[in-house]
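Marked as duplicate of an earlier ticket. Keeping the data here for the record.
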Amino acid sequence: MRNRLGLIALALWLATAAVVAFVFIHGHTAPGSDGRTALLLQTGERDFVLAEMRSLLTADRAITAALAAGDAAQVATAARAVGMAEAHDRAPALLAKLPLDFKRLAMALHGGFDDLAAAAEAGEPMLALNARLIEQLDRCIACHESFRIDVAP
């Protein structure tokens, strides 16, 4: 009896772990009609993600202006504003709905802004900082080519 109960508990634990792993990797998604993966979010979650994207675009614009002005301090300030500190623990329930590939791109993007800020603070030449910004924009493009955001039914 005890052995059987232990096996049932183990089976339930393994099943739960498998479901959690599946959700962590695949998120709440569906194939999009345009070939991209549709992230199925509630309206408020969609608004949150889109607002974050707008803040990234605003930071890109500020970094571009700072690069044109040769102002490394402003490059660092604008980049740091959208770094990992900005992404950390802001919406843990939302993170569970996002597929692993999206999470990887997002974390690489936020980490890349921290790297850009550190490089600007270290006195890296403007052309090198501009190349770092282009890498960041490439991450944005990769994400937008792969994913779209739909409101969950």
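See parent ticket for discussion. The helical segments are 2-26, 43-69, 72-80, 84-87, 92-97, 100-121, 126-146.
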